[in-house]
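ok so for the tutorial part 2 we go from a plain amino acid sequence to predicted structure tokens. step 1 is just haveing the sequence, like this:
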Amino acid sequence: MALKKVRVFSDGAARGNPGPGGYGAILSFVDAKGDTHIRELSCGYSCTTNNRMELLGVIVALEALKSPCDVVVVTDSKYVVDAFNQHWIDGWLKRGWKNSKKEPVANIDLWKRLLGAMDDHEVHFEWVKGHAGHPENERCDELATAAADGDNLIEDSAYMASISR
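step 2 — the prediction. this is what the tokens look like for a chain of 165 residues:
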């Protein structure tokens, strides 16, 4: 049986780095009847980084899928795309690579969660230039920005713990 094809668009926003941040994601798929379905997801965090929001947008969208799918993740985050396409994630998690910057190591909690969310799915990552006329990515940016600027921000406790070591 062929897997259902799903496109996930995602974006992250942060006000300062670290600062208040948010993610926006869109799930887009066509069902067996040929009808297109779109689901928007977003949330804000009180103290976090842009890269963490980029990752959370992808994670939450993948976690929302109920059955195994063939997924193309479209994002303007080179960080997310390169981590998989250039095998950085393998180095960080499997070989214990360290980076001169703390942030990739600090995001290990989200990389592990993302790998778990990818289980059972066939996932491909595609980079697009941000703000270059991609309507879905523009909408994700709007969702992420609104979430970052909202009043209902969640504390990013894993990030706070990572910087207090």
